[in-house]
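As a warm-up, study this chain.
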Amino acid sequence: DIFYVRIYKSYAPSETDEIVEVRVNLAHDLSLDDDGGYFSRKVVVGPHTFKKAELLLYYDKGRNLRDTEVVNGELVERADYETYRASIQD
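Now compare it with the structure written out below.
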C-alpha cells in the first residue's frame, strides 16, 4: 500500500507543509494486535524540515485496511503529492 502524508509545520495545514510518500509492505510491516487483526506504525520525517508525523494503520484479519490515524499531519491524495513534488522541483 502507498499513502501520502502531509506533515504539518505547525498545528494546522499550511502551504509550506511537506508531503511524503509512505510505502507499507503488508507481508513485513504489520504486527498482530490484541483483536487478531494487524496494525502498523510509521514515523514519517520530512526530508527538508525534519518535522515528524506518525501514521497509524489498522487492518482486519484479512489484511484489509480498516482505519487510519495521523498525528501531526493528514493523509492526502496522490494528486496533492504530485503537485507538491512539482512545486519543489521548480
